[in-house]
Each structure stands twice: as structure tokens, then as C-alpha cells.
Amino acid sequence: MTELLFTSKTFVPEFPLEEADVCFLGIPFDSTASAVGNQRFGPATIRYALKNMISYIPEKGKNPLKDLKICDVGDVDVVYGDFKETSFRIKDTTNSILKINPNVFLLAVGGEHLITLPLVEALKPSTIVQLDAHMDLVPEERFAHNTWAYFAAKLGFRVVQIGVRSWEEYEEENKKKFEILDDLNNVKGPIYLTVDIDVFDPAYAPDTGFKEPNGLSPQEVFEIIDQVFKTGKVIGMDVVEISSKKFNNPTSELAARVILRALSNLL
Asked: Omega before 13 cis (within 30°)?
């Protein structure tokens, strides 16, 4: 095969899925958060940020993009307005990835927060650690960005929520009903980590649809991520709810930093 010398990739070098430590998967679905929009551009803007930033983390002495074998399998071909079909495609894609490489760490980028539901259905973790400004425990029989955690808890997943600071009164009832935790004590692995970018204070992540004041700082989130990986085996993660179609936006760059921090814990 002729070597393609003048093509541009996010991860250099890029490894085949069979050999990869990490599988990068974009899921540009934002149909239920359409009032805000632009979440579908998250995979593209985060890839661009990862490609153009320094990936070495001085305080940890690690360079995830250099020292891990990463495979970008592209984006799921989502169906806008049809979560049922999109969910099937996400689960089918995830299962296909795991069939090829059962030990790969799945790194998904959204898209809206609803994408987490089919991902955990496929990966089947014992615990979901959710970094988020919102509970997403709205008890509706409608799949949406603010109901996904309700459905996940209803399916029996143990959910830990950190950074939550805004919710409807009736969500408190579901928190009690499903015994939602708010710390990492007694967490059992395997763990799935989901990071809604609005967990950060809007001063750090302005490009998200549902901003809430008094959020966490980057350093606080990075320390929580490190703690999650120390708590148990993390088998996958996602970063969701970036709402911008512009490259070089600060929120996508912070999301890329979240990814680098998480991946540094695999080294």
C-alpha cells in the first residue's frame, strides 16, 4: 500500500483497532436538545482541539497521545430525530468494536447527553459516574438529554452524580428512589465515566446549552477524574454537551483537556 504522506489525522500515529488501547468514537446526535443545538459538532471541534494542543501533562509527567495506541473509528451514522434507530446504531457499533478488541477503552464524544444511555447498555458497567450540573432524572417516558439518567437508573445501573447544582423538585424523588449517590465511596467497578461539559462553571465552559453558575473549576474536575480511575477499573467514558460549531472555541479545548486527563490515568 502506498503511504499517504500528505493526509492529516488527529492521532499520529494511528493504530488499527485490533492493537489499540483507546478507541475514539464520535456520536454527533443532538435531536432532543435542538432548542440549543450545535452539539452535533462536538466530535469535529474536539478532534481539532486534540490535534492542535500540547498533549503532555507536566504535573503528571505523561503524554497520552504519544504513549497510548489510539484508533479513531470515525462517527456513528446517526439518524436525526430518531433516537430509537440511533440508539440501535450506537449499541451495534459499540458491540462491533468490543468484538474486535474486548479490552479497548472506549472514548465517545457527543453530541447530547442522551448518547450515554445506549453506550452503557452496550458496555454494561456496574457504576456510572456522572459529572454534570443537572441530575437528568426527569421522569418522563420520553428519551431526552434530561431523562437519560432516569432510564439508566431504571435499568438497574448504579449512578453517582458529582457537580449537580440545578434540578426540578420531582427529580429529588427519583434520586431517593434509585439511591443515586453523590460521592465515590463504596463505588464498584467496572465504571463508566460521563462528563457533561456544563459541570464546569460557565466562566471556563461558555459554549454549552444549559449553563449553571457556581460550577467546578478545571483543576477540581481533573482531580475528580483521577479519583474515579483510582476507585476502580474504568472501561469507557464520554464527553458531551459542547454547543459550538466553531473551531478553537474554549469549551471544546477544555473538553480535549478532560480527555487527556482521563487518558493519562491509563498509563
From this structure: yes
| pTM: predicted TM-score of the whole model, two decimal places | 0.96
* Whether the predicted pLDDT of 133 surpasses 60: yes
Q: Are the beta carbons of 29 and 80 closer than 8 angstroms?
A: yes
Q: How far apart are CA 24 and CA 18, in angstroms?
A: 13
For the chain, count helices (H), then strands (E): 8, 7
Average pLDDT over residues 159-188: 96
pLDDT at res. 5: 61
**DSSP states of 138-153:** ---SS--TTTHHHHHH
Question: Grid coordinates representing 144?
Answer: 431526552
Q: How many whole angstroms separate alpha carbon 19 and alpha carbon 11?
A: 14
Q: Please check the confidence at residue 57 and state whether its pLDDT lies above 50.
A: yes
Side chain identity at residue 89, one-letter code: R
Q: Which of 106, 84, 86, 85 is nearest to 95 (CA)?
A: 106
Return the bridge partners of 208, or none: 242
Cell triple for residue 39? 452539539
For residue 111, cis peptide bond before it (omega within 30 degrees of 0): yes
Q: Is the dihedral of CA 145, 183, 105, 91 positive or negative?
A: negative
Instruction: Please answer whether residues 83 and 32 qualify as being in contact, where contact means their C-beta atoms are separated by less than 8 angstroms.
Output: yes
What is the DSSP track for 101-119?
Answer: -TTPEEEEEESSGGGHHHH
**Topology of domain 17-264, CATH:** Arginase; Chain A (3.40.800)
